[in-house]
Amino acid sequence: CGATSGRGAYRSAMLADRWLADARHHLAQLLNAVDGQSIAVCSSGTHALNAALWGLLRPGDHVITSAMEHNSLLRPLKQLETHHAIRVSIVPCDADGFADPGAADELICEDTRWIAIGHASNVTGRVQALDRWRDLARRANAKLLVDASQTLGYLPIDVQASAIDVLAAAGHKGLRGLAGTGLLMVARD
After folding, report:
1. How far apart are CA 176 and CA 45, in angstroms?
2. Does the predicted model carry a pTM greater than 0.70?
3. Which of 41, 52, 59, 85 is the most buried if burial means most Cβ atoms within 10 Å?
4. Tens digits of per-residue pLDDT, 22-81?
5. Which residues contact 53 (CB under 8 A, 6 or more apart)?
């Protein structure tokens, strides 16, 4: 339509607003998110992860993640650890490429605020059991962040059933969107 959403009240801008609202609505339905208002459109999965991490982590927060994570999750966590006083614990993976939430259980402390896990590895293709990570987050009284860049559009994800607080994904993989697209779902709380 030749316009950017949110830039005006002229016809093509209003059309762009509708297209964006429709896309957010359909993404919310795909994820079983409360509504489209919980979805932000980003320029990539990496952008979505960075927006979540830099926007939500605070000094003193402890994050548990796994050794199987994509660099788009591990690198910003390392930057935040080095320069912004968060603490990161990394759960090793087994020979089959699975990160063990049981091993992560031992890492929970009073400052654990986030569990950050990739739904599947871009290297091995191993799919992590989100229900086990959800249960870990509940035990830790922590929020669950899921990187679904490798799986969204290929595997069903129900953010409400899995108690996912934040989900980031690329748009150009399983969603078959354009390169340079991504999404960030943030639960209302």
Report:
1. 13
2. yes
3. 52
4. 999 999 999 999 999 999 999 999 999 999 999 999 999 999 999 999 999 999 999 999
5. 73, 76, 77, 80, 116, 145
* pLDDT per residue as tens digits for the range 91-100: 999 888 889 8
Identify which of 39, 68, 50, 40 has the alpha carbon closest to the alpha carbon of residue 150: 68
Query: How many other CB atoms are there within 10 angstroms of residue 18's CB atom?
Result: 12
Q: What are phi and psi of 169, to 5 degrees?
A: -155, 155
The DSSP letter of residue 108 is -
Question: Strands 87-91 and 112-118, how do they pair?
Answer: unpaired
**Nearby residues of 170 by Cβ (< 8 Å), 6 or more positions away:** 44, 45, 46, 48, 149, 152, 181, 182
Joined tokens for residue 122: 């871009």
